[in-house]
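FAQ

Q: What does a record look like?
A: Structure on top, sequence underneath. For example:
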């Protein structure tokens, strides 16, 4: 092989190598520049305000306004009941609750935590719910809740998971039988 052939092949190989490196570098996706703006404090304040608005809406017995705070595919995990998925079943739950004689409800977030990404969050707190018992006497239940939230494209927040439970002790077997009118 002639020296000129070796030089030509070497130049072609180097040129081909540089072309491949150039193309592979040009085809790589550029990552978006990292934002240094941390909006968690503002998001937490927004969620606290949203929680307060939601509690007020529920207290006024406005079913549509109450359900509007849920995402379309939200789930609610009420105590001693099956999981409710979607606004139709969630609306039915709230309608039943709000139509109960003597109904009133109020809740307050005691913890709001927004993910560093700023698109999901959770809130937890306590609630007080009153309605009349079968004798027309008001009975009040106090409890706690945990909610997961998702930020929407318009920067509003929608509840996507809602779970609540009573602070009342579980009735004993004797209390349950007495309440149901059965005796042993």
């Amino acid at each position: 092989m002639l020296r000129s052939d070796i030089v030509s092949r070497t130049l072609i190989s180097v040129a081909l190598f540089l072309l491949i490196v150039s193309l592979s570098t040009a085809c790589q996706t550029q990552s978006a520049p990292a934002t240094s703006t941390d909006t968690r404090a503002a998001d937490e304040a927004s969620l606290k305000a949203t929680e307060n608005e939601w509690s007020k809406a529920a207290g006024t017995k406005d079913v549509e306004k109450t359900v509007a705070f849920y995402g379309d595919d939200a789930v609610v995990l009420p105590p001693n009941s099956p999981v409710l998925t979607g606004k139709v079943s969630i609306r039915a739950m709230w309608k039943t609750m709000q139509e109960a004689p003597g109904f009133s409800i109020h809740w307050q977030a005691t913890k709001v935590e927004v993910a560093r990404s700023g698109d999901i969050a959770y809130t937890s707190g306590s609630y007080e719910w009153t309605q009349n018992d079968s004798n027309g006497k008001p009975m009040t239940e106090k409890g706690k809740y945990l909610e997961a939230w998702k930020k929407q494209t318009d920067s509003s927040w929608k509840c996507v998971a809602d779970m609540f439970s009573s602070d009342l002790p579980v009735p004993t077997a004797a209390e349950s039988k007495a309440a149901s009118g059965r005796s042993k």
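Q: Is there anything notable about this one?
A: Residues 176 and 182 are 9 Å apart (CA to CA).
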